[in-house]
């Protein structure tokens, strides 16, 4: 089959939110691992691509030393240029193959390998994990992402269809992707039509259709390097853990706590499920079957470290908590309408407990900042916090409502007289990146006006100058109706500017 090189179509993914050392260290400490300090850490990224992830980390951690490894010259050149544009002195990108890397690089506190493990041949996978062990500092943490079963069993038919459709096609890379998309659409439409016409027709047409919908909004670089890669080898989570153990590593946890937690279930079902699993590895593998997971971001550490499972609420000491949800009003039928409710990535939580409600409200008032646990304890009820509230907050973390960090970033909650945005986000927005990275390393789809403003928020313009910029430059050149409407007059521009800046502040893009 044709091979689409990363030089022909670079992988242009943005920052990998869960890979930031602030988060890795927090999960490590939660499970009893005294992870290295983040501000002065040595950080290595395998498969650094165009550098969006590592450059963002380096920009936010000027005291850290960062090295990116990639074997695609075009990607390395781009990453180096962005680092130079940002004036970063603490990051470098090496053009090397993973099989060529050795101990000469030294040891690292944090190692990141996003989008590598499943997309390379077996010898490279073996070498990747051995390098994680050989180059990792004694208390270091490695982040390794990979496609996983059982969810990928449902995704593979569309991938195999696209590979088959392009197997003998001699065409430029962009044409290969376009042809694969078109062929997949025709086959899926045909299968759906057959299912509708024939009782007991091919029910898997809906599976194909869902996957086709999933990739419809994904860029060509994603499709090229996910669905048209010669090597794309999903694995079961338990098999990955065994592979890591063979390299001298142990599973620490998942970068997203939701993947480790038992979801809210009916009491009888929860008891039955609890009897199935012998240990946390088997439980998480069974949960992958429950959820049909397609992707994991596993954290690894040295096999000799004694971890604490399950974590004790006292482990929150020294960590900072960032709220990941929003209060919602009445209308959710599953809960008493009178109860305050928090909608977060893991679902909806009815806040019946007054202590937990007080803590969540405090965290909501401090967003987008992360709040040290000791500060939160002092602000609510320090006499009862560690005994009563901390266990509930730990549960909320594992269900997706909180993020834990060490040495957290400090975005401002409201724009200053001369607003300044995170330099990496400004650079990405100036390149027409629609999902720039925030100071918190989170990635958001930024609305049109805040996105148009980002490149100009360098701390040199006041609000009047920014409003005039909207009227005189941004609105006349805009293709988006909202941006054009914002520039109708200076008055409308001031109102729209205030809303845009507040959006950026709330989502962690603005710094002091």
From TrEMBL:
It comes from the Bacteria. One of its GO terms (molecular function) is methyltransferase activity. Keywords: Methyltransferase, Transferase. Residues 418-475 form the PKMT C-terminal winged helix domain. One of its GO terms (biological process) is methylation. Residues 41-148 form the Methyltransferase domain. Transmembrane segments: none annotated. Residues 220-301 form the Methyltransferase regulatory domain. PANTHER family: CYCLOPROPANE-FATTY-ACYL-PHOSPHOLIPID SYNTHASE, FATTY ACID C-METHYL TRANSFERASE. This is Methyltransferase domain-containing protein. The lineage of its organism: Bacteria, Bacillati, Chloroflexota, Tepidiformia, Tepidiformales.
